[in-house]
Design a protein that fits this description.
By secondary structure, the protein is an alpha+beta fold. It has a domain of 31 residues. Strands 1-2 form a two-stranded antiparallel sheet. The protein contains two helices and two strands; from the N terminus they run H-H-E-E.
């Protein structure tokens, strides 16, 4: 299994996301709040 992950991926250099995509993901991750209560998990998107 370790041998599969030891080689460098050929797709690593081809990933060039747009600036808008990166901005959207960062803003979404900052607005997302996850609350764990007992065995429940609440995901809240704060706007």
């Amino acid at each position: 299994m370790a041998k599969l992950y030891s080689n460098r991926s050929r797709y690593l250099d081809t990933l060039n996301p747009k600036e808008g995509t990166v901005k959207f993901l960062l803003e979404y991750s900052q607005a997302l709040s996850v609350i764990n209560y007992d065995k429940l998990k609440f995901e809240i998107l704060l706007n």
